[in-house]
Automatic annotation (TrEMBL):
<dbReference type="Pfam" id="PF00572">
    <property type="entry name" value="Ribosomal_L13"/>
</dbReference>
<dbReference type="InterPro" id="IPR036899">
    <property type="entry name" value="Ribosomal_uL13_sf"/>
</dbReference>
<dbReference type="InterPro" id="IPR005822">
    <property type="entry name" value="Ribosomal_uL13"/>
</dbReference>
<keyword id="KW-0689">Ribosomal protein</keyword>
<comment type="subunit">
    <text>Part of the 50S ribosomal subunit.</text>
</comment>
<comment type="function">
    <text>This protein is one of the early assembly proteins of the 50S ribosomal subunit, although it is not seen to bind rRNA by itself. It is important during the early stages of 50S assembly.</text>
</comment>
<keyword id="KW-0687">Ribonucleoprotein</keyword>
<protein>
    <recommendedName>
        <fullName>Large ribosomal subunit protein uL13</fullName>
    </recommendedName>
</protein>
<feature type="compositionally biased region" description="Polar residues">
    <location>
        <begin position="135"/>
        <end position="151"/>
    </location>
</feature>
<feature type="region of interest" description="Disordered">
    <location>
        <begin position="129"/>
        <end position="151"/>
    </location>
</feature>
<dbReference type="GO" id="GO:0005840">
    <property type="term" value="C:ribosome"/>
</dbReference>
<dbReference type="InterPro" id="IPR005823">
    <property type="entry name" value="Ribosomal_uL13_bac-type"/>
</dbReference>
<comment type="similarity">
    <text>Belongs to the universal ribosomal protein uL13 family.</text>
</comment>
<dbReference type="InterPro" id="IPR023563">
    <property type="entry name" value="Ribosomal_uL13_CS"/>
</dbReference>
């Protein structure tokens, strides 16, 4: 009887990628990043295992949204106390903590279990063009979220 071979730590080659978020659409960028973290771009993808790669996102403060989302999209957080919900718009959060916008978008696209929490630790987001992961020799990954051509 033949069985499907599961990937092991030895057969997995986990790479590091650098993604430039400048002038990229938030949702489309987050989808691509979530697929890489999950490992869906590899032939060894297994739904219940961590087969994905590490992703470093730079220039998080330059990510864009379309339409009126910049002033109407709300981010909520709760302190756990009665009446402790705080809300802020995309623009307010981008001025305060621009990394959190990409983190929340990608986190919402990962599984809602212990595997998703483990995968989320492989995402590193920085607001400027610099990051501290040069020792891992990350490859530059170009993701184009801009529409191409006419209507």
């Amino acid at each position: 009887m033949e069985k499907t071979a599961l990937p092991t730590k030895d057969t997995l080659d986990q790479k590091w990628y650098v993604v430039d978020a400048a002038d990229q659409r938030l949702g489309r960028l987050a989808t691509e990043i979530a697929n890489i973290l999950r490992g869906k771009n590899k032939p060894t993808f297994t739904p219940h295992m961590d087969t994905g790669d590490f992703v470093v996102v730079v220039n998080a403060e330059k990510v864009v949204v379309t339409g009126k989302k910049a002033s109407q999209k709300l981010y909520r957080r709760h302190s756990g106390r009665p009446g402790g919900m705080k809300t802020e718009t995309f623009n307010q959060l981008q001025n305060r903590i621009p990394e959190r916008i990409i983190e929340q978008a990608v986190k919402g696209m990962l599984p809602k279990n212990s595997l998703g929490r483990k995968l989320f630790t492989k995402l590193k987001v920085y607001s400027g063009p610099d990051h501290k992961h040069q020792a891992q020799q990350p490859e530059v990954l170009t993701i184009n979220t801009q529409p191409t051509g006419g209507q």
